[in-house]
Structures are given as structure tokens and as C-alpha cells.
């Protein structure tokens, strides 16, 4: 074969392969609700809702579900606010009857979950089939449609003796909330039940009362019974032989006592819910099919995107001036978290759609508005309470610039600049160490690494905090330049030089070849975030040499020199430290305090993987960055839905379900695998990374 012919064959094959891939990509459309269907997810909600429903097909197959609620989900996450809305029971009233019939979900195909609804199929005794379809029809209304079939034959038929009475009694019962400090009063209102619930939140600072009003409506034309003491209610009806009944119940939420019941359609209609979710899914670009993005990744990519719809709560109260994205409706529904929001915004901006952009801007509007009110960007903004602690600076400044790159909205940029400049100043006023190092301190919840052993000895001059502040200086300098403020640009640039010099002088350990946190040289009372665990102290000014991924922040902020960056990676990325079967753990495997299931004392947090990867790319360590991206995709793929954190030895999902930042990082990671690194490139350009992709 001649060289020319060989080249032709190679080129032709490449073009042919490209054409096939192109045709595959053309056939792949955005996911829909049907594409995300499965049988291993059990929660439903609606964009803007303050509640969610948890289904339990294995143990409670005829239940409408248990309703979890906003602040209550943090107060007692294992106990829903409204656990007994409606549950169906079957009684055999025949002479040769069976009494109460136990109901069990059908083993094969008895449960299907979709983003827009769930269906449970059950068998009660030998002759009763039940299909329960549960869905949100709006952000304040949840409905369940029961289709119940009596398979017994009528008396006198060839299969049923004349002496048998095959009529069945169906009882649909529920109970108003009345536990754990939540008290309710219920009353009959025509064919419906009205419930007024009051709960006092004992979760500081959320020690306020919550008043909510509910109504359970039904398509039945009969009034329910009500026990005045227990607040239990029930509707009953007869189901004749060989008959099928359709019964619908809806639970609606109100801010004040509701007026007369609204008419209820006899059939549950989920078309609006389905359309709204499908429209949201269509906002996200379809990832190209590749070796990295197959069917599993495609489904998880859109499942992660759906979470933003699922975890959004409507505006309300004093501080939620826009709809907010919570970390997880089932565990952290009480508020909007600071550094979680940065990751959420990065993922939302993967979409070119206006709906996603508006949601991204809403999050920053809520946080900056609260920041102006309290003097710095707070850790959590609840609807009625602001938690006045803090979380990482810089990440929202970065997010705001990614938004600005899309919109070129100078007014938005000016508001962001003022809020984040104020926030940076606050750190140096309130968290500056008193040892003259020029470094700031933090510990506990302020850091975002709440229970990390990094602060077992108290607050530290942290490598991540001071790198965040350094990045923030450069990001603010860039904002000032865009706004035409040369004086501010020069001032923030000078601060960046000072913060980088302080990190190099005080936090680099030349003997170990790594950056560490450092105990302040002069002891002082410092805010510790409330989660510090004190162990045997080291001398003031000592390095806190517990192995974690935190030294990668020096790469993220382009503070390390080239040899330091290589040393950090070589020291940390070993099997005895951070290269566990599922990497990276948030504490080195060889550390005595390493615990693979204990929050920030061992598990994998994928946001840490991603930030470390962005830092590695800054120094041209692309193979290591790709390794972390692949590790993130693999560990998230191992569960039906994104989890809060993961066991680094087994890959098991831990903590909250449908965790927003895990899904966000997954989306951004797949975007990077497909060649879209806009978020990282925004940072790398401003930090002047010479080796970024």
C-alpha cells in the first residue's frame, strides 16, 4: 500500500466514523420524563414547592405518601410533617369474608417513578388489585388517584357460590399532624377535611412558629368521619363484585384558612406537570455521544438537571426575594447556602436557555441582597432567618463573572462587585489572624468542611480560605476593570500580590513538599463555626499536617509555583493518601481520624474533586485532572440519584438524596469531557494560568 493510499484510508475511515457519530448525535434528543423513569427513586415535588412527598411502595403500597416540609425537613429529616395524608384499606364484608385484607406491592413491575408522577401497583388479598398514581399538579397541590378493582365474581356466577357476598368495603383514612411539637386541628368541610397546623421550630436560629393550612379533598360525594381527639378522618364506600372504582384525593396547602373547596376533577391530570418538566429538561444541551458519555451518563446528566427543578422553592418570607435552589428538599430545604450556590450557577450556565439563566441570577440576587443587610454574604439565607456565619469567598464572584460573560449586564456586575467587595473586606475585619501573618482564619461550618479534622485544634490560617481570598482579589480586580474603575482595579491587584505572598511565606512546608493549614502564632478567641473538636494541641504557629485535598487550593488559585504544584500532586495522589478505590476522600486514608462514612472526616465530596481538577489543569496536569473527572462520574453513576457524599472505599452514597451540588458538578464535569470548559476557562484567564486547556 502506498503512503498516499494509506493516508486516504485513514482519513476516509475517520470521516466515516465522524459521520456515524454525527448521525448518532443527531438522533439523540433531550431527555424527557419518560427517559428518567425507574423503580429506585421515591420522592416527588414540584418546582417552587415548599414540600415533597416520599413514597414507600414496599411497606405502605396504598399510601398517598408522607409529606415533608421546608424547615421541618432539617428539624427532623426522618419524620415528615404530614405522615398520614390518605391510606387505603380493604375490608371483606362477606359471610365467608377474610376480614381486613393485607396489601402488598406487586413484586415485578409494581412500582414506577418518573419526575412527573409515580405509580404503585398492589394486590390486596387474592381478589383486589389497586393502582395508585401520585403526582404534584402544582407547587401547592399533591394528588393521588386510586383505581381499585374487585376481581370477585357476582353471586350465582359459575365461579362463585350463591352464599358468598363478594362486596368489599374500601376505607380511605388519614390523620392530621400532631407530634414533635407540631399540633393540628381538623374539621369536616363538606366532603373534605380542613387542617390547621402549628409547629415551633427548635432548630436555632429557626426558633419561630410555622402556621400552615391544608385541605384534603376527594372526588367522593360523601362526608368523612372525624375523631375530634385524635384528628383521624376516614371515607368509606362499597366496592361491588366485578367492579372498578376510581377515587381521587388531593392535599392542598394555603397561607391562610381556605375558603370553600374548589371543584376537583375526577381524574388526576399530570399533563401540565409533564410539560413543564420536559420544557426544563429541553433547556440543557444534549451531550454528544462518546466513550465518556454513554446511556448511563446521559440519564444521570438529565437526572442531575431535573434536580434544579425539584429542589427549587418559591419566593416567600422576608429574605427569599426570588425563588431559591436548596441543597436537597429532603434534608436541607430550609435555605439557600453560599458555596453550594456557586456550583449550582456553574451548572445552570451550561444551558443557553433564558429559564436557566434567570434561575442562576435569582440565586445571586437573594444572597447579595442578604449580604447588604448583614454586612457580608451569609452562609445560609432562610425565608425568615439569615444565618450570619459565612462560607467560602470568591466562588460567587467567579459565578457572577461567568454570568456577566453571557449577559454583558453592567448593572448586574456593578451590584455584584459592591456586594462581594464588601464581603472580602469583612473577612479581613472579622477573621484576620492577630499574629501579623496577614492570613485569615476559619473553622467548622464557616469553611464548608464542617467537621474536618483540620480544625480539631481550633481555628486555622487555612490554605483554602486564604486562596479563596486571593482568587477573590483577582476576580474583583477584573470586575473593577470591566466597570472602568482603575483605582479599584489597582487596589485589588495589590491585595492579590499581598495575599499570594502571605500564602507562600507561611503555608508552604518545604520539608514535606506541600501546603498546610497553620495554627495562628498568637492565640486569640476566634469564631470556630460551632463544630470544632479539640484534641491534643500543637504549638502556636505549627502546621496542621493532616492529609486532605485542601493543598490543591494553592493550584486552584495559581499561587503555587510549578515545582510546588508537581510536589503537591505527587505527595497527595498516592494509595496511602487520596487514591482510594473511589477518590478523593476528604481525609487521607492513612490518617488515624479517617472514617469513610463520617461527613467531612473521610468521604468523597465531588465538588472537592472538581475544584482540584480545575487547579491541576491550571498547571498543565491534565491527565491527573481527567482522572478526577472520571472518578467523579464513576462514583455518581453508582447510585440512582446524586448523593451528598460517598464512601471512598465502596462508592456507597451517603447523606442527603438528590443533592444539588453533586448534580451540578456532574453536569459541569460532563460538559468538560465534551470539550466545554467555559467555567474553568473564565477563572484560568483571570488568574493567568499558562497551561489551562
UniProtKB/TrEMBL annotation:
Under the heading InterPro entries, the entry gives:
6-hairpin_glycosidase_sf, 6hp_glycosidase-like_sf, Glycoside_hydrolase_63, MGH1-like_GH
- Cross-referenced Pfam families, in alphabetical order? MGH1-like_GH
Query: Please, one GO biological process term?
Result: protein N-linked glycosylation
- Source taxon at top rank: Eukaryota
Give the signal peptide as a residue range, or say none if absent.
Answer: 1-22
Report which residue ranges the record marks as coiled coil: none
Tell me the GO molecular function terms: Glc3Man9GlcNAc2 oligosaccharide glucosidase activity
Gene3D superfamilies to which the protein is assigned, alphabetical? 1.50.10.10
Give GO cellular component annotations, separated by semicolons. Answer: endoplasmic reticulum membrane
Q: Which UniProt keywords apply?
A: Glycosidase, Hydrolase, Signal
Q: Does the keyword Hydrolase apply?
A: yes
The chain positions of domain Mannosylglycerate hydrolase MGH1-like glycoside hydrolase read 336-662
What family is reported? Belongs to the glycosyl hydrolase 63 family.
* Annotated protein name in UniProt: Mannosylglycerate hydrolase MGH1-like glycoside hydrolase domain-containing protein
